[in-house]
Amino acid sequence: MVDPTVASASVLAAALSIGLASVGPGIGQGNASGQAVEGIARQPEAEGKIRGTLLLTLAFMESLTIYGLVIALVLLFANPFIG
Amino acid sequence: MSEVSQQNSLPVEPNDSMQEYYQLQQELLVTTVILTGIIFVFVWYFYSLSIALNYLLGACTGVVYLKVLARNVGQFGREKSQIGKSQLVIFVGLIIVATQWKQLQVLPIFLGFLTYKGTLIVYMLRTLMPSNSR
Q1: Would you state the torsion angle of the CA atoms of residues A64, A67, A68, A69, taken in this order, to the nearest 10 degrees?
Q2: Which residues of B touch A65 (CB under 8 A)?
Q3: Which of A54, B8, B65, B105 has the CA that lies 20 to 30 A from B44?
């Protein structure tokens, strides 16, 4: 029998974890992409270098979202608090 | 005469400069595959084949994720006006399969997926080396 308090708290925690984990990286990715496009427009000859740096930056930032996503998915699909 | 000098001073074609990006992309993918192979053997030796295969599944998904992310960054500003989130769908699918399928374990798969991050750290450390002129 699933405790309704635990179930509702888990769903709330999942929503908060993915929501909060998306805010920071979302702002960061937007800023980085905008600056990268500006840089490419100013210096088209450095496009490869700028895109490479953008790839590394986005990969690092997106892993923060992935941490929150893992917590949310585990709480939803393999909740350790629900027996 | 001035037209000729203007033509000579034209910036390098985007395709030429993009070669550096494609090279980086290739280097990251190859490094991830090599790192996956090494860690797979270690996990097999110290834990079990089952956990090692779980790790391998996560690492392979990580390689696909990195490739999709690299493709999205490559298309950004040319064919697409924003960086897509299709790479996250791959990860969500993997974790849902891992939690639903009894034979799979979430932790080795997740740590396997994070192998790509190890590659990024290795690459960053290599570029910080004083001998590296990049």
Answers
A1: 110
A2: 88
A3: B65
Contact B95 A58 (CB under 8 A): no
Q: How far, in Å, CA of B29 to CA of B36, rounded? A: 10
Whether the ipTM is more than 0.90: the answer is no
Coarse DSSP helix, strand, coil percentages of chain A, rounded to the nearest 5 percent: 90, 0, 10
Q: Does B99 touch chain A (CB under 8 A)?
A: yes
- For chain B, give the mean pLDDT: 85
Place of tokens 């994070």: B114
For residue A72 the two structure tokens come to 């949310």
Euclidean distance between CA atoms B25 and B20, whole angstroms: 9
With 0.95 as the threshold, say if the pTM is over it: no
